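Students often ask what a 'structure token' actually looks like in practice. Rather than answer in the abstract, let us consider Cullin-5, a protein of 780 residues. Its sequence is given first.
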Amino acid sequence: MLKINGQPDPSIIHSYDQHKPDILRVLRKLVIKDQVTNDEWQDLFHHVHMVCSWDSTGCQRLIRCIEREFYDGYISPLKHRLKSVDDGYQQLKEYVENWTDFTKHCIRLPMAFQQLDLATRDALLKGKFKSSSSFQLVQDNGKSAMKFKFYNNNLSQTPQQQKHERPLIPIDFKNKNQYSLVRCILVRQWADRILNPNIDRLSNSIKELIIKERCGFIIDATLITGFRQSLAYLEELRIIDYHQNHMAQFERMYVESIEVFYSSISDEYLKEYGVVRYITWALSKFEREEQKALQYLEANSASLKKVAEACNRALIKNFVEQILCASRNFIQTNQSDSLKLIFKFFSKIDGLVEKLLEELRRHFVSSGLACLTNLDSTQLGKPDLFVEKLLEVYCEFDGIVKVVFEDDIRACLMLEKALSLIINDPHVFMSYNNNSNSNIQDNENGSSTDVVAKSDPEARCAESLAHYCNILFRKSPLSRKLSNEDFTTRLDQLYMIIKLLKNKEAFIRFHKQHLVKRLIPDATINLDKEEEFVNRLKDVSGMPLDEINELLRMFKDLKTSELLATKFAKIFKPANAMESVNNNNTISNISSQISDRLSIQDGSGQLQSINVRVLNPSAWSKKFDKSLIALPDEIIMFMPIYESFYKDQYEGRELEWCHHLSNGVLSFKNSNGNKYDLEVTAPQLSILYAFNDQPYSLKTFNELRLLSNLSTNELRRTIWSLVSNPKLRVQLINCNPPMETQKDLNRGTNLYSINHNFVLIKNGKPQTKGRVSFIGKLQI
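Now compare that with the structural description of the same chain:
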């Protein structure tokens, strides 16, 4: 059969020319968005399938047809409409509205030509697909995902005029609706004919909208987001190379507009309203730009980082010195809210917080040293006053760090550096060194009267801290008035200061001396807290571990002694073991290796309990006075009993008794029948026991020396503690004639006797009972 011109070739069954009229009729309806019936949809699917299946050139010709019809029916009219709009805002609005309509085409048309994607894929795999003048299909390393190569063809040009190739475009035939060949054709035409010719004018309109919005005007934000979505859609498809530049240019334009806009108004705002209001305003702009960046740009860290950097340059970096200058005044006047605002502001840029902290560190050091150096010699000489002032400085600075910086690690490190400079500055005690000539003396209540003079100034703070720990841990007025919570807080504050000491060896040396004086007479308020504190010191960097371990062994000795006391109590019951004992006093004898404690709980005069402490001299590291003291017979009788028990427990070990370290409680009854408990040391007991058989006798100094077996100096100190106790208005021993100094006590004419009219007075009123401590300081 012969082919007639203008008619389909009858030799080809289902050729493109045979089905073209039916395909064009429905295609043109789809392009102009006319209603398409179900029958027309079904007929379209059929015609496309026939063409792609039977005509070897049908796919190429069909693609060319779709490209031409979409250009003529949709792209070309839109191009002329946009070109005719003079107002940039109206052009942008027209573009965004038509972009929304265009995305619907990108869904409908690929659905109508699904068979085209399948046919081109099969043809490519079989090597039967022929390249056209406008596109080429190539296989991507044998994978099912193929790449579609567009040529830069102008529909009005000939193939010979087309020279420039576009990059490869991936087409995933498994997802026909998202990455179809037809969709790539449509999007390429939009990019070439609509977006690219108008990109500059559209970008300027976007920029004007953004500036208006920053100035407070209400705008249609959908125009900005719609324009950006069109660029993002092209980037997602990777349809042409320049769309990526458009997206980058859009982001660059947006970021640059931030810096230009705020740079033009921030300086005037700062001058007019001051630092605090400026920072508040700038922080609000920071927050706004971050929110808008999420709306107008890609929601990724890279885009947000660029926006933040632009805000930093425009709002912060140009005004750092002015803000730091204002911060110095805020620091001096303790304006925490303003400082907190600056800290939040400077946190936007790396390195600026450190500059603020450096200003604060200088203030801490200067004000802290000024506070301590302004103390007079009396205050410097009393460890409790000095350390409490030091704690006030620490609490003030720590409060600023907590409130302003919310315990930021950088602020905490700065505080430690500042406190370290204050604590370890030897100049604080220089004036006191030149004026003081007395030593520290512990009062009977556990406080201290003076700091050691002429000692190393660098060790002075460590020494004062050790004395304050002694006041805090022992039974003193300070420790009694503190609640458990206050005590723990005060201890934590001390711990933080001790951590910053450079001369930690000096602190441990002094702390150990006081610890021994607390543990031996059982003068600590809480043994468990003492041990816990030492364990915490073990974790401090720079602490001498050998000395710390010795302190821990001291606590271990006390626990071992408690176990021995329990065993001893089970074997020897005091009432049965010493039925002949009858005495109205009790005494606790403690030595570097052994301590025994006898206590009376009732008025019968019978020994009720015995407690023994065994201490290791290597841990306590003390050379105690081991000279004998005249003690009651009951104690002398008890000593061999315990020695025998100890040898049974630890074969080969020997005990040495050091009575000068002993202390205990005497029960005293005055002439009115009032009973008082007297806390005394062993030397004081030996003197009082000399009057036990002859309560109303008068004794000379030499008689007391023979009866007590004390040395002259020791006897003089002990008598003075009984005849001139500063806490008592009525003394326990009378001296006739009265002596004004301790040196005059050994005169041969002096006579000493028990004051049977002794009474305890509190608040100006005599007490019928009570407890009095005569233990000033054990000779340890």
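One point worth highlighting: The radius of gyration is 49 Å. Ask yourself how you might have guessed this from the sequence alone, and why that guess would often be unreliable.
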